[in-house]
Write a structure and sequence with these properties.
Blueprint (H helix, E strand, L loop, with lengths): L2 H21 L16 H26 L6 H15 L1 H10 L4 H29 L4 H6 L3 H16 L4 H16 L3 H7 L1
Helix pairs in contact: 1-2, 1-3, 1-4, 2-4, 2-8, 3-5, 4-5, 5-7, 5-8, 7-8
Subcellular location: Membrane
Protein name: TMEM175 family protein
Catalytic activity: K(+)(in) = K(+)(out)
């Protein structure tokens, strides 16, 4: 299979995920700015999720950019990642609808952790195909950002049952860590 087809399919799924998320935010019935107040939690959860989907789209682009060939393991690993990403709208809606309560925040973190693990698996499959001396493998190195992100997601999940502020902060910190594009990979392909 051509990697262009894999990229196009993934881009389409990610675009649909973002579209579904924004459709969850309903127009208020009133015509005053005060009528927007109940939408604040929904909007905040949407913004964070939009950033996460954007981060995965960006890193997915760089990861596949360096790919020379596609095999079945990469196809299934990519679908695994898309599965977890497709769950983001559900948890985003639940978090926004219930003002960042314990169970919705825990589910949000579980889904983010699932996305992170799925991305790590996809990355491993790509690196295995590219070989031990690939420029991409050298650029990724030990992937400290990926490991720190997974740990913060676990802390966010556990803390969601004790302190929603800490939980939310963990998820925001992970997004901030990844918000800046990964210069290691960018340098290899520029």
């Amino acid at each position: 299979m051509n990697k262009g087809r894999l990229e196009a399919f993934s881009d389409g799924v990610l675009a649909i995920i973002i579209t579904i998320m924004i459709l969850e935010i309903k127009v208020p019935h009133g015509n005053e700015f005060a009528d927007l107040k109940p939408l604040i939690p929904k909007f905040l959860s949407y913004v964070l999720s939009f950033i996460y989907v954007g981060i995965y789209w960006n890193n997915h682009h760089y990861l596949l950019h360096g790919l020379s060939k596609v095999n079945g393991k990469i196809l299934w690993s990519n679908l695994h990642l898309l599965f977890w990403l497709s769950l983001i709208p559900v948890s985003t809606g639940w978090v926004g609808e219930h003002n960042f309560e314990k169970a919705p925040l825990a589910l949000y973190g579980i889904i983010l952790l699932g996305c992170a693990v799925a991305y790590i698996i996809l990355q491993k499959m790509v690196l295995d195909v590219e070989g031990i001396n690939s420029p991409l493998r050298k650029a990724i190195g030990k992937d400290v950002k990926g490991k720190v992100s997974a740990v913060l997601n676990v802390i966010g999940i556990v803390s969601s049952f004790y302190n929603q502020w800490i939980s939310g902060a963990c998820y925001v910190i992970v997004a901030l860590i990844w918000l800046v594009p990964d210069k290691r990979i960018e340098r290899v392909f520029s």
